[in-house]
């Protein structure tokens, strides 16, 4: 289907003016030849609107959506509804995704309405951990969508961009009426009070004896392969399924995560059928702005202490712990090697501590200028999965994960994020996460297994992570 060119000199000054908007769209529609389609993006200033309040007020959890909070950039994003989308799987998924994104941005015409500028529409992407398709998962192996509605809030503004796909069959009257009703609802959105308490799960959940036995056996088997020097590390995870007496409210879950993990990357990814993958990840895969790439080597961790002196001591012990330093160096070396393989010249910062609410990590930031010919999705493909969520070497670790884990990771520890038409992008790693499906929740947690790991201690660590996530999320 070909794409028509809109009459930009006569575009409506506001989505609020329904009569002018209706006339403009009708005029555009009359100019369309058979089979032509008009893709249009319009920017509107929302003023003081909280995207999370919009999420709850419009019941976005039942829509195809992306929600993300980025503390590094002070940015909150909500996107829902589908203007264009792509569902793919297999080893060529990243190149096909790149082609889809390029075609969408080439066809889309942005129209500014906020001080002469437009908010660039984003394409949102969710890639599963493995590239193999599975009919058992609620989420596609790889899914990209250009949203119908996108809200981006920063410290300076809150902008809405509305993407419209117009062809000869579009009912313009219904479309304009829908836009008016949605704009009104978005502007009226207020945070809902969290009064819901799920009734079925009141005690901290625990793995069953069978689950503990399976996980311990997987860890012991992996340690045997590490002893044979087939690999030096593997990250093994498990999933804990919980049932509740009533439906979970995803907006309330995100609110709790915001309160407890405001220094992490909050996210929700919905399939439009009531399934939401949510979490508060400490780990970004990449940040790309103005052709400058930033990624993080984040591996090696220690708890926090409420006492300042005790917390400082834990941090110093972490900085001098040989085991944790080796684990961190493996991740750093991998990222540098993968970036150099693309012809980049990455520069690593000095080793630092990244102190989060309840944990501190060894952290090295990596930066590199990115030439225009390298697409953001080529970077995602090159960096995923990192040793922090797979192991070392990555390929052998992936094989062990497939053999030993009793669940399909799907989106767990996988790349989620967005990109725009100017080559900017943000992708996180979907850890500290859960799958919420109406009145059910599947919680995920894992641990890095290296030489000297104690299976019982690793199982206890994983169980503690699951319980911490449960308290924070549910």
Automatic annotation (TrEMBL):
Coiled coil: none
Keyword field: Isomerase
TM stretches of this protein: none
Enzyme Commission code(s) on record: 5.4.4.2
Molecular-function annotations in GO: isochorismate synthase activity
Catalyses which reaction(s): chorismate = isochorismate
Family as reported in the entry's similarity comment: Belongs to the isochorismate synthase family.
Record-given protein name: isochorismate synthase
Species of origin: Synechocystis sp. (strain ATCC 27184 / PCC 6803 / Kazusa)
Lineage: Bacteria, Bacillati, Cyanobacteriota, Cyanophyceae, Synechococcales
